[in-house]
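Practice record 12: protein with PBG.
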Amino acid sequence: MTFPNSRPRRLRRTPALRALFAETSLNPGDLIAPIFVHGGSDVQPVAGMPGVSRLDFDSAAGFAEQAAEVGLGGILLFGVTSEKDAVGSSAKAAGGVVQTALQRIRAEVGNQLVLMADTCLCAYTDHGHCGVLTDSGEVDNDATLPLLAATAVSQARAGADIVAPSDMMDGRVAAIRAGLDAAGLPETAIMSYAVKHASAFYGPFRDAADSSPSQGDRRGYQMDPANSQEAIREAALDIGEGADALIVKPALPSLDLIHRVSSELGMPVSGYAVSGEYAMIEAAAANGQLDRRAAVLESLTAIRRAGAGTVITYHALEAARWLQDQ
Ligand code: PBG
């Protein structure tokens, strides 16, 4: 059928028609809020991410309470600490910053929210890499695996429903699964950062988490943004190793991969709108160049439309409030 019989505008005529025929929904329960927790006793604004702060334990519990009230799907915890050493020991400490925050938050919100912990070493190593280093300064993949597994186990013991390894070491999902099972934690799920490009869009995060590599960059372990076949291989490997759900990031630069991973591999996929994506919208909106609310909701909807069931976004709490008001 062609014009004049076919008039797609008929279904766009009113808000009610548009709502009835919308193919993609965006609900508070689809959103996951990343939060930065530090061991101090104040709230520290993150310079590159206006509106985002490093939270002390009380503020983190308060944030979680608000997230539960507004019906968010979950929160994803990142630790920030000055306790760093060559092997990132504080990542796996039972009294570590993420472990303590998990216990506080669980006491506050019970099971209303899914609690996730980012599993990586970069915020805990004094060199800022996601794994331990060999004598020649290379990231030692296999020596890193037991440390990641121990970190995941301690996060699970502290109450994480899901651990989310973001380090990009080969074999980490299998190592973490084996570690959790051996520790009597077979119910803890793994949501792996399966497709994670070495991206310029993580810049503001590294300020927030104090996790920039002091030497070199992460291209030796994170993926080349030029690659999509490799993205499918990476995701398939994680599934084979026991991942329960997958993360693709950054989100807007990787909509094609969110689509391919979700449609070809049939796993729950989360798109992570990373710190640089957040900062872009905030900067343009502050300059009067973008309608902030419209830009945020359109971006999150696009990530869902590409195939992500859930979206990890620093705008989660605010977006959920907007969605409730609509
Ligand atoms: C830790 C980690 C990073 C992000 C999530 N987990 C930083 C990095 O890999 O350098 C980035 C998240 C963001 O930019 O919002 N490895």
